[in-house]
Amino acid sequence: MNSTTMNSVALIGIDLSKPSFHLYGQNKHGKMMLREKVTRNEMFTLLNDFPPCKIAMESCTESQWIARRLFVMGHEVKLIEPPYVKSSNTNDFADAMALCEAARYPSKPQTV
Predict the structure, then answer these.
(1) Facing residues of 56 across strands?
(2) Which of 88, 96, 102, 107 minimizes the number of CB atoms within 10 Å of its CB?
């Protein structure tokens, strides 16, 4: 991924539901800039190279641990309660995109 794309990503939604994680990134206008399927280690390597941005994940036991690691990297992490994440589709990239959309509403997500 080139540095121009990395610098334009303002918000990343991460679907944590399986051994492989699905990342969906948007710029500040909501345009898709990132769509990656990665392992846990690949995710941390990729996000460690990213400039600080907002990251949204569904709130669960695993997300607490991941949020702390991402916070140390300089990212702002929003944990969103499952009822606020509604995907119209049933694939993992759609879930990651729904997390981005839910993170745009500041009154619902919890910031870590």
Answers:
(1) 13, 78
(2) 107
Q: List pLDDT tens digits, range 13-30.
A: 999 877 899 999 999 998
In the chain, the largest separation of any two C-alpha atoms, in whole Å, equals 35
What is the phi/psi pair of residue 94, to 5°?
A: -65, -35
CATH number of 3-111: 3.30.420.140
- Put residue 104 in one of left, alpha, beta given phi > 0 → left and psi -120 to 50 → alpha: alpha
pTM: 0.85
Cα Rg of the chain, angstroms: 12
Could you tell me which of 96, 61, 99, 97 has the C-alpha nearest to residue 78? 99
pLDDT at 4 over 70: no
Query: Domain boundaries in the chain?
Result: 3-111
CA 7 – CA 93 distance, rounded (Å):
21
The token pair at 17 is: 């539901």
pLDDT tier, 87 (very low <50, low <70, confident <90, very high otherwise)? low
